[in-house]
Amino acid sequence: MLKIKKFVKFFLLGLLILLAMLFWFSHQVSSSIGKAQQKETLEIVKGDDTRIIAQKLKEKKIIRQESYLIYYLWKEDLIGKIMAGTYEIDPGLKIPEIVKILVAGETRPDYLKVTFPEGLTIKEMAQIVSEKNLDGEGFLNLAEKPSADIVDQFDFLSDKPVQASLEGYLFPDTYFFSFEEEPPSIILKMLKNFDLKFSEQWRSQLKLENKTIFETVTLASIIEAEVPSAVDRKIVAGIFTNRLEIGMALQSDATVAYVLGGEKKVQHNAEDISIDSLYNTYKFPGLPPGPIGNPGASSIEAAIWPAKTNYFYFLSNPETGETVFSETFEQHVRNKSLNGL
Fold it and tell me: Could you tell me the sign of the dihedral formed by the alpha carbons of 4, 6, 7, 8, in that order?
């Protein structure tokens, strides 16, 4: 009887240990994550069996143990249901999440989706290109010093000064590039988009007013950086036009920020606005030597068709973002005080 009790005791103890191990193993299968620190590309070819797939995932550090994946596929009756293809697996995914992607066939797209917001400089665009694992440095070098082969393909670049970069002409939009897209191809696609978006109506209006595309894009880039509203942009464009017509300095904080390397302030101080740069429109009247960013359609339209007003001054309320306009300097000073500037 004593032997039976001992046997039962050891049996129950062994059963508890086994159950604990099974619970631990099942927990690891459902909750463990691999050691990968970045997105990994996984290639599964037709004919790969469960063991090979588990091995590939383990080698990429997407999972911790091959057995975890094999067990999960067996338990969920998913053996043989993983689809062939090229996948991009984010780090930190659990096995159920990984298997869901592989079984659904959520393969990596054949292209990169890249979005450039309005107003970015070519340096900021280059940063985005680099973040997509494309050649951002090559992109920036070519944008700063475009080859004659590129410039000669587009008539809208004919009035661009020879030494000027492509700042202002790389149209902000969403693009689809291949994973091996080279800088010349990226830039050509962006210039072709500019050529398409810069309509015949826009070009005809500029010819009518004897204005160049270069000076229009330059003004549009300043408008883009100054105000976000399409309505306000037309009014601000009118203010800058009023100033240009009488030889008054544009006094744009956006151009000063460009000189300062993109550093944006609520209000620039005396030292900032005394910087000896032709882009400093506080110190030098007229348009700066070129665009300070790449404007979108709304800002370009504002530069082409500015609102006709008697305003010569404007400011943005730092709290609300509201644009406040003034006809005289005295009104402008009063509005600055009223708006906490």
Answer: positive
Q: CA 157, CA 303: separation in Å to the nearest integer?
A: 18
Question: Would you state the pLDDT for residue 271?
Answer: 67
CATH 2.60.120 is the classification of domain 109-197? no
Assigned CATH for 29-104: 3.30.1490.480
Q: What is the DSSP letter of 326?
A: E
Q: Is the pLDDT of residue 14 over 80?
A: no
Are 237 and 337 spatial neighbours (Cβ–Cβ below 8 Å)? no
Report residue 254 as tokens.
Answer: 């956006």
Residue 207: φ, ψ to 5°:
-65, -40
CA–CA separation, 132 vs 48, rounded Å?
30
pLDDT tens readout for residues 235-275: 999 999 999 999 999 999 899 989 887 666 656 666 666 78
Residue 268 parent element (H or E): none
Cβ contact 124:102 at 8 Å: no
Taking each helix axis as running N to C, give the angle between helix 136-144 and helix 183-197, from 0 to 180 degrees, rounded to the nearest 10.
50
- Angle, vertex CA 17, rays to CA 12 and CA 23, nearest 5: 125
Alpha helices in the chain (DSSP H): 2-31, 50-59, 66-75, 95-104, 122-131, 136-144, 148-151, 183-197, 200-208, 213-226, 230-246, 253-259, 297-304, 329-338
Per-residue burial over 86-101, b if 16 or more Cβ lie within 10 Å, else e, is ebebeeebbbeebbeb
